[in-house]
Design a protein that fits this description.
- By secondary structure, the protein is mostly beta strands.
- The chain has a domain of 35 residues.
- Helix content is 9%, strand content 17%.
- It contains one helix and three strands; from the N terminus they run βββα.
- Strand 2 and strand 3 form a beta hairpin.
- The longest helix is centred in the last third of the chain and has 8 residues.
């Protein structure tokens, strides 16, 4: 039960592949002998992030504050109007 990381070079049949081992040795492997592994993907371009900084709460306009407190003008109830139904089966 010893697994060696390798790279699949090409498919040589319906269930067989040529794989290159770390030392450069090329072997033929059955599909059952190959496991998928994930490698961390490194983006070619850096990901830009944006974090707005507000120095004090008075900088937020009243219109924005109203939208934050009441989304779309709808009051959100704090508790459900009807209780959650549970199954009676045992």
């Amino acid at each position: 039960d010893h697994w060696v990381p390798s790279q699949v070079l090409k498919q040589t049949g319906p269930v067989s592949y040529k794989c290159e081992l770390p030392g450069g040795h090329v072997v033929r492997c059955h599909r059952d002998q190959i496991l998928n592994r994930s490698t961390p993907s490194i983006p070619s371009t850096p990901i830009k992030t944006f974090s707005p900084v507000i120095s004090d709460e008075s900088a937020v306009s009243p219109m924005v504050q109203d939208r934050v407190d009441k989304p779309n003008g709808v009051d959100v109830p704090s508790k459900l109007a009807t209780p959650v139904r549970r199954t009676a089966r045992v």
